[in-house]
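Case study: tRNA-nucleotidyltransferase 1 mitochondrial-like protein.
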Amino acid sequence: YQGEQCLQKEMQQWSIPPFPVSGHDIRKVGISSGKEIGALLQQLRERWKKSGYQMEKDELLSYIKKT
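Here is what the predicted structure looks like once written out:
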């Protein structure tokens, strides 16, 4: 059970890293509508979450360029 205690302690110390994309980043890609930026930020947050918070800014912004 020692391993479980270590894992529990590690999980308690972990926190979600800051989201790497901002509305300013999306504007630089060429999108200016506030509603569209908000919707894209939500979609990108979901992708980032599904990646285990591992995707970086460039990877997330490349998703916008593909759509």
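For the exam, be able to explain this: The radius of gyration is 16 Å.
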